[in-house]
Amino acid sequence: MNSPSAQIIFKETHPTNVGNTYHIISGSFRSLSLFLLVFSPLNRSLSHVQTIPAFGPHQYLFSDKGKGHVYSTSWALPPLLSSWQVETSDHPNVPWRVNHINNVPITATSSYITLPPPFTHIYSTGGPTGEVHLVDSKTGGFGDKVQQFLFVPESELESADKTRVALRYGSHGIEFSTQGHAFIPVLGTDSIEMYARDPATGQLRHLSSNASPRGHGDGPRHVKVHPNGKILYSVTEHTNFVDAYQIHETSLVYISSRPLLPPILSATLPTTSSSDPHTRSHFRGDTLMLSPSTAQNPAPCALLATTRGSTGNVRGWLSIFRLGPSGEFLDDFVRFETPTSGGKANALDVRAKEDTNGGMWILLTDDDDHAASGERGGVRVLEWDGWGKGNVSVVAQWPPRNDASQGETMLGGSHAIWLD
């Protein structure tokens, strides 16, 4: 495997004249609430709009952008999923509001949730199970459950761990291709499970188990599918790589990898002889996102991925990898050492900048103890202007340093997403 040499990127500020504001919703590992924020590119600030009473810590969030709904997982017990309605406003003096729609019980704590086109079925996965729910056509919330699929033998489900601990070893995400395939990474089996989706019922039919390229202890955690439906990307939690696969009709074929860490750090893996892959490394690969489609760049020009430090003494990393027109890795990439370890977070979301070609606003959530204590924000906005146009920079954070005056303190972020 050939990998380009690392280019280490640190903070640098870029002026902008963008006057729009963008809304963000975030969960927290240490609070039961959700938090509605607004980002001003002109003022380079994050402000608190609403604290939303919710039902459990660590909400992983998905927004059906443009339709006004948000869906979330949590670490609540007994396990559940929640849906929310977003009241938008075009008037500067009328704030947005988020209102609860409904909850549904699920079998095991879920870590990931998504609503793919044609937006009729909601999919969630976590630990030993995954579930499919209808979208209620009247409320936009959860309707009936239409399928449950398993990652343990059915005879073992009753005794299987269904708490958040199982997320370290079970299923951890689900993504769909434009060709009707679904892909679920499973950390404990070091595999990516491939399914076919029935367009009428929304149910999934298993096609194949696809082994991670480095074998036992790789820990595939999150996946994304290129819009062309031909390339799948996967982050490995335990070995800190981004892998690319070619999508075939019923299986995946491994193509190549890129390391999440600079070579000097990659050379130290693994750091212990622990039999538990989750504790073997100083770093834990986390999430990944494709750069958003724009008129200038309809195909993604970059893949963004993060890794976390395993303790508060080890800072995490954000890597941005350049992609070719067909989704292949090119040689250009940048790295940004995150302000803290990221704790259990360092999760990502991205949106395009309106004043640059290829530039992005990047959301980065932080659950490090420094963020929870108020020393540093639980949600940060990073700025990157695109290839060859400057460095990654932190431009805003919330809560502001040592400021808990805006209602309930976030106490560290778990996952934040752009709502507009």
TrEMBL record:
Superkingdom: Eukaryota
A GO MF term: 6-phosphogluconolactonase activity
Entries under Pfam families matching the protein: Lactonase
Family: Belongs to the cycloisomerase 2 family.
PANTHER family given in the database record: 6-PHOSPHOGLUCONOLACTONASE-RELATED, CYCLASE, PUTATIVE (AFU_ORTHOLOGUE AFUA_6G11580)-RELATED
Name under which the protein is recorded: 6-phosphogluconolactonase
Organism: Laccaria amethystina LaAM-08-1
